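Is it possible to get an amino acid sequence alongside its tokenized fold?
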Amino acid sequence: MDKVVHFEIPVDDAARAREFYGSAFDWDLTEMDMGGGNMYTTVTTTPIDETTRQPTEVGGINGGLMRRTGDTPAPVVTIGVTSIDESLKKVEAGGGSTVQPRTEIPEMGAFAYFKDSEGNVVGLWENF
């Protein structure tokens, strides 16, 4: 059974959102350059293993703040899968569609976004 492993909150003003979530919930927020001028803010809500970057608390998940786009106008939950390519085939066979194809993040893994049968955008994550 695949599990929810990450969340993303779309934002219009990253600095304002970091200030809000950091002060309201005491989350640790770290800006990352994803290349090409794309910035992403990692959100740590629960302690992590420094080697694996995975939460150390059972059931805990961390997330990120991302730039709001037409494809991702609302919060996105991300499901951990063994193979993004195989999962996207199942999504499409079930009536969903690919929004963002498999995209690698060096030394971490890969992600994709899909639209489900109800029009919701959901993320996929594959560890390396």
